[in-house]
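Encode chain A's predicted structure.
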Amino acid sequence: MNCVDCILRVSSNVDLTQEPEILDWSIQGGGKVASAMVAVARLDAKTAIITKVGDDEAGRFVISDFQKYGVDTGHILVDEGAWTLTTFILVDEKTGTPRWVRSDVIREWNLPEPIRRGVEWADISEEERAMNPLGGPFRPYLTEELGFVTEGKVLNLDSILPDGVLEAAEIARANGIPTCLDMYRFPDMAELLQKISWCIPSRKSAEEFTKEADPRAMCRSILKYGPEKEGMVY
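Encoded structure for chain A:
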């Protein structure tokens, strides 16, 4: 999954019924694997991403942002029936704590023009959503690109969008390619974990999957399913 993150740094303890002072802002590409690929590319490694965007302005931003950092975009699918996810994040100026909000929360604020454009990208009508409920990032992914997995030395996966994830992991393992999973919910996480070399769960996702409260117990539980290396819980 990839998205466009519209980030607003605001004063502490924002009351969303009142428009806060916007201290700073940025628009960045987002998504677990997407962010990892950019980070690795900035360390001068060769990277590529298999993902999907809508045929819209936000999707074009995503592609250009990957290209800016040298990530191979030749395996991004542009789907005319999809829209590209745009998120809005308020960051507390003192603590740095992020808070995700819907576009309608900030729509009437005095926003910088680029953030205003982000709101427009996110403004998909309820009628459009009703006509095509799978039109967003959850629209099923086309798996024709998965053979490209064998060109890499490491496969990094998220499990936010399940379509193609298990198949990609199976292809990698069959070809001796290590796999890394940024863990999220998945229809059959136990089966997926059997094909993973490194599992990196968030504390929340590990707790939801294992039903454990202690981070060490979470890791021990996850390792029972087959990851070769100990996971990190953050």
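DSSP finds nine helices and nine strands in the chain.
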